[in-house]
Design the sequence.
């Protein structure tokens, strides 16, 4: 089996991709291939990608989201058993305004849940709430019971 390097902001910054190609794969090809299980599988794909990264801080996490073209992630509220993040920016606005596909942020949620486990040492489950009027995706990370 071929061993690969961990993903980091340093090595992914050299990748070149267009958002349109990514969106076609994500919202057209994968759901066609995966069927009704696509949202769940995308969540676990996000977790799998996160396991292959070397992110240790929230700053690295925010930078990684931008490099991947997922938008600007920001922690806006932290409670004892919950963290609330906003995902916004030009990319998110364009995704929310397009009319071709129903968009979701399951991949990002899975990625964030797994990274939070490595950064905080607690296990989280993430869900998204889309605010199309404000062009913001609120991602709610809920700490799972131990």
Sequence:
């Amino acid at each position: 089996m071929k061993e690969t390097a961990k993903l980091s902001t340093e090595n992914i910054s050299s990748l070149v991709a267009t958002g349109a190609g990514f969106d076609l794969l994500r919202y057209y090809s994968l759901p066609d291939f995966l069927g009704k299980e696509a949202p769940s599988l995308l969540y676990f794909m996000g977790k799998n990608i996160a396991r292959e990264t070397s992110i240790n801080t929230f700053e690295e996490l925010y930078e990684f989201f931008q490099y991947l073209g997922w938008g600007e992630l920001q922690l806006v509220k932290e409670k004892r058993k919950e963290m609330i993040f906003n995902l916004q920016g030009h990319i998110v606005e364009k995704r929310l305004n397009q009319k071709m596909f129903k968009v979701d942020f399951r991949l990002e949620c899975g990625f964030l849940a797994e990274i939070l486990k490595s950064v905080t040492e607690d296990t989280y489950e993430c869900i998204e709430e889309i605010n199309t009027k404000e062009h913001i995706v609120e991602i709610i990370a809920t700490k799972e019971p131990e």
Remarks:
- The chain has one domain: 18-143.
- Residues 59 and 140 are 18 Å apart (CA to CA).
- The radius of gyration is 15 Å.
